[in-house]
Each structure stands twice: as C-alpha cells, then as structure tokens.
Specification:
This protein has 151 residues and is of the alpha/beta class. The chain has helices at residues 23-32, 34-37, 46-56, 70-79, 99-111, 120-128, 143-150, and strands at 3-8, 13-18, 41-44, 60-62, 85-89, 116-117, 136-141. It is globular and about 50 Å long. Catalyzes the formation of methylglyoxal from dihydroxyacetone phosphate.
Length: 151
C-alpha cells in the first residue's frame, strides 16, 4: 500500500489502557509523569480512565470499558487520526475474554504507525522522547489512493 504523511502536533492525543492486573502499574506511571501528560489530550478505556482521573486529577476522556467496546472505540479513533500514541499496559500472563479486541487494537496501531508502549519501560522511553513535545511527521497508509485504485 502507498503511504502518505500526517502531521502530529506538539500536543499529542494519548490513549491509556491497562488490563486489570496492570492498572496499578499504569496509575503509578501516570502519577510519575503527570506533568508531562498534562500537556496532552488523554483518552482511556472506561474503568482505567475513571481510576486515573480520580487518583491524579488529570482531565481524561473515558470511553467504554474495554470488554464493552472501548478497545474498538480506540481502534476507530486511531483510524480517524484522533489518537497519536497508545500506552497499553497489557497482561501477557492472563487471558481476557475480549482478547480478539485487544489484538485488533494492537494490529490497527501497527497499521496506522502510531507509537505503542506495552509496559513501564517502553512508556518511559516514549514520554521522555523529545518527539513527545515536538510537531512530527508520521508515515501512514494512503487510504485515499487505496480507494482510488479500487473504484
């Protein structure tokens, strides 16, 4: 597929997601990076967003709970270029009933070439990157060209 560029502004749209056994880890990371995160627009799946907002005071837009469709909502937002970064603390040792949704979310993040942090180490690398506070160009699939070839 052909690609094109999109400009990601200095203020990023960041999605925050955590499986049940990783919510404490994500909360700790958000608290440690509260100042940096406050400069961005934050989104989260339902339960995670509620916990993070309550505990940190950050303004977080909460979507549906992951198992109720929140992962799919985030996937749609990625396709619509409304999410620039995905921080998803997933638990590789526990199965979840909505595992197909989780895989779909990670797949769509890869398709649309957005940075993904899956644990505290990668989240730390992302949040401390100079690119987090700069306007950057990102290659994305050229969906318009894809459609034009098929019509």
């Amino acid at each position: 597929m052909k690609s094109t560029n999109r400009t990601v502004s200095k203020s990023k749209q960041i999605a925050l997601v955590a499986h049940d056994h990783r919510k404490t880890d994500l909360l700790r990371w958000v608290e440690e990076n509260k100042d940096a995160l406050s400069h961005h627009q934050l989104f989260a799946t339902g339960t995670t967003g509620t916990i993070l907002s309550r505990e940190t005071g950050l303004n977080i837009t909460s979507l549906m709970s992951g198992p109720m469709g929140g992962d799919q909502q985030l996937g749609a937002m990625i396709c619509e270029k409304k999410i620039d970064v995905l921080v998803f603390f997933w638990d590789p040792l526990s199965s979840v009933p909505h595992d197909p949704d989780v895989k779909a979310l990670l797949r769509i993040a890869a398709v649309w070439n957005i940075p993904v942090a899956i644990n505290r180490a990668t989240a730390r690398y992302l949040i401390t990157s100079p690119m987090m506070s700069e306007e950057v160009q990102v290659d994305i699939p050229d969906y318009e060209a894809y459609l034009a070839e098929r019509l």
